[in-house]
Structures
1.
Amino acid sequence: MKKIGIAIIGASHRSSALFDFTKQYGKVAFVTGLYDLIPERASCLIDHYAAKDVVIYKSMHEAIHDPRAEAIFIGTPDSQHVEPAVMALEAGKHVYCEKPMAITLEDCDKIINAAKNANSVFYLGMNLRHGPFHEKIHQIITSGQLGKVLTIEANEYYGGGRSYFRRWNRLRKFGGGLWITKSCHDFDLLNWLAGAKPKSVYASSNLSFYTKKPEGGMSCRECPIKGTCSDYYDIMKPELPLQNKLLEITEKTTGLPRDLCLFNSEKDTFDNGMALVEYENDIRATYTVSVVSGRNTRELRVQGTLGSLEGDIEEGIIKIWPRYSQEVLTVDVRDMMNSSHEGADDRIFMDFFNCCCTLSKPRSSWADGRLSLELALAATRSCDEGQLIKVN
Ligand SMILES: NC(=O)c1ccc[n+]([C@@H]2O[C@H](COP(=O)([O-])OP(=O)(O)OC[C@H]3O[C@@H](n4cnc5c(N)ncnc54)[C@H](O)[C@@H]3O)[C@@H](O)[C@H]2O)c1
C-alpha cells in the first residue's frame, strides 16, 4: 500500500481522530496540512500532535491543490461539506467526507454529480458500519442465521447534549437538526441492516430538558446557579482538554463562550426523540435517541423468524437466541474495539486509504449517504408536521 498524503479542511475535534490514525499508521498516510477559517485552530492541532511537517494553508483552494495531498479530509460542520467536496473532486482528489454528506438533498446531488465525473474516490465517513460490533451484527443478519428479519430496535443513549447545545450542532442552519447531524449515522445503520429502502417514517421529538432557565446566566463561569446546575461546565477542569482548547480559540475569535449555557443557548432542535421506520421488505425498525443520558451506548435488538439478537456496544457483547434450541450464543467483540468509536475509526481510515490505492468501492456509497439524509429529513418533517412521511 503506498503512503497517501491527506490535507484537512476544518481543524475540528473530529480531525484529531485522523491525526491519531496517522500517528499510529505513519506508513499508510500522513497529514500534509490544515485549512480552517480560524487558522489558530490549525496551529493548536499541529502543536498538540507535535506535527512539525504539517503546514497551515491560507485558503481552501491552496489546501485542495497541494500536490502532496492526494486526498482531502472534510471535517467542517455539516452545512460546510459541499464546497470542499465538489472542489476536491473537481481537482481529481480522493475525498473522505464526514457524515452527513450534507444537510440538503440539493447539496448531496452537487457532490454526487462531481463524484460521478471524477476518477477519484468519494468516501463517506459512516464509521459505525466499520466498527466490529455493527459489522458482526450485519454479518449475522446477512448470513441468514436469524432467518427473515421482522423488527429492528435501535437505541442511542448519549450524554452529548452537554456538547451539542453549546456548539454549532444546536442550530439547523449548520447541522440540519439532530435527526441529521446525529441520527444520520443510525438511519444509515438501519438502512444497511434492513438491506432495503425505507418507505415511511413517523417520528416524535421534543426539547424536554435543555429549555430556558431564566434564573441562569449565558455562560457557566458567570452563572448565578452554577453551584446547583447538573450540567455546570468548569472551563478550568474540562473533560476533553483538546476540544476545550479548540473552543477557547473559537471563543477568542468569535466571542461565543466555550461554556455557553446549554439551557439558555439559542437552539432549534430537540434532546430526545423516537422514530418508527417501515422498509420496503416488510421490516419495521424503531430508533430512540436521547442526548440527555448518564450512559453513552448504542443498543440493538433484532427479531427474526429463526432467532433473536441483542447487543450493547458499550459492553461489546452480542447474544443470539436461536428459536429452535435452548442454546444462547455469545459473540464477544471487545478485543477488536481498539480505537476511538469502539474500534470503528482506525478501521474506516484504513479502508479509505486502501480504497485510494485500489480505487475499490467504499462500504457506504454516496447513494447510501443520500438515503440516510432522505430518511433524516423525513423524520424531521414528521416531527414538524406531526404526521407520517413517505420517504421515496
Ligand atoms: N463520524 C463521527 O463519528 C463523527 C463524530 C463527530 C463529528 N463528526 C462530523 O465531523 C464534522 C466536524 O465536526 P466537529 O464537531 O469535530 O467540528 P468542530 O466544531 O470541532 O470543528 C469545525 C471546524 O470547522 C471550521 N470551519 C467551519 N466552516 C469552515 C469552512 N467553511 N472552511 C474551513 N473551516 C471551517 C471551524 O472553524 C472549526 O474549526 C461534522 O460534519 C460532524 O458531523 C463525525
2.
Amino acid sequence: MTGNDWYDRTANGATGCVGDTGVAPVAFGGLRGRERHGPKNLRVPTLADEMRRQLPIPPRVVSVAKKPRSAIGLGGHAGTVVWVEDLGVIATSDAYTPAPWPDVERFARDRRPARDYGETWTRRLPLAAYRFEDASPFESTPGGWTREFPHRLVSPTRSADRAFVEQWERSPWNDRLVTDLALHLLRSRRLGRGPGTDFLGLSLSSLDHTGHAFGPESHEVQDILIHVDIAVGRLLQALDRDVGPGRYTLALTADHGVSQIPERLAAAGQDAGRISSTDLRKIVDDLATTLVGEGPHTMLYSGNQLHFTAASIDRLRKTPGAFDGVRAAIEAIPGVARVYDAAELASSEPTTDGFLAAWRLSYVPGRSGDFVVLPRANWIVSSDRATHGTPYDYDRRVPLVLFGAAVRPGRYSEPASPADIAPTLARLAGVRLPAAEGRVLAEALDARER
Ligand SMILES: [Zn+2]
C-alpha cells in the first residue's frame, strides 16, 4: 500500500491507486458516471478475494464506501463494490459488473447526495457535551462555511455541484448514505443468512474530510464521531436482527490518526509548523536545474513522497554529488527531520531506525517516490489545516475492535495493527492468507479458534 497516488512513469502522469483508464463507469440512479476506477493496480488478493477462491460455498461480497479506493481496497477484485463519485453519483465500474445491480439501483433512485442539498448540520448533542472551543481561529472555513456550527450543505451556484459535494463529504450525511446503502444490501443480498460465510465491508470517511478542515479538537470532528457511534449502533442492530447475534464477527479500525493543527501548537509555544509542498518542490527543482540542467524534475509530492521523472533521477544519480546535494537541500528545509531515498527504502539491511522500518513496509518499487520526506513531529507538509501520513504516535495509534462470534471479550495489551485484521478474520472464515503481513490476533479469540 504505497499511497493514495503515485507518478506513473509510463503514462507520464499522476495516477490514483485505483485509477484504471481501461474501465468504464457504471452509474446508478439514472445518472451518468465519469470516473474510472477498478482493482487493476491491486497486486495481492484481498481477504474477500481469498474467501472467493478458497471457500467451498462462494461468499457474497459487498463493499461500500464514499471513496473508490476504500471500497475497492476492502472488496478486492470482484463483488458488489460501490462508491460515490466526486460529483455525487453513486457508481461502480465495469470491472465489477456490466450493468447496474437492481438493488443498488433501487436505493440510488431515491437516495443520492443531491437529495441532501440544503440540509443544515447542527450539533447532535447539547453544547456542553463537546470539549474545546468551536470557533478556534486555527480552523479553516472550507467552501464558505464558518468555523462554527451550524453548517449548511449548499453551493454558491445553488446546485448540487462539486462545491456542494465537498460540503456533503465532510458532513454526517456522507457516512449516513454509506451506512444506509450497506444496510440495504445486507438485506437485499441476505448476507449471513445462507450456509456459507459472506463479507460486508464499509468505510466511513466523513471523519477524514472533517479532520483535514477543522483538526482533531474541533466540535465538527467530535460530532462526526458521535454520528459514527450511531452508525455502528445501527449496523449492530441490523446484524442482530437480520443475521443473528453470535452469527457474525465484526472488526472496526481506522487507517490513520491525524496531526494537530500546527499553528495551534506553535501559538502555544511548541515546536510545530507547516511546509508548503509547492515551496519544497521549487527548492528541489531549482537546485536540480542548477546541478543537471533543465527539467522537468519533480512530478508529484504526495503522502510525503517526492517523485521525479525517470530522466531527471537518472541524471542526478550520474552527476557526482548531485543526488546527495538534492537530498541535503530537502533536509535543510525547516521542519524536515530526515529524508530517505529509494535505495534505503528498498534495502533489507537491518535498521535501528523505527521510522525507516515503518516506511519500508509501504515501499513498492516503481510506484513509491524517489525520496520520502519525514517532517519533524507536529510539522506537516500540507495546505490542509491538519493531516496524517507520518510514523508519529498521533498518526499511527488507531482503535482496533473485534466483536461478535468467536471473539473473547477483553482488553489486550499486546501490540496489534490494522494489518492483523485480515489474518484474524481469515482464520475465523477458514481461509489461508499466506502472503499477509499481519498476525492472527489469537489472544482475542475463543480457545477453539486459536
Ligand atoms: Zn486524509
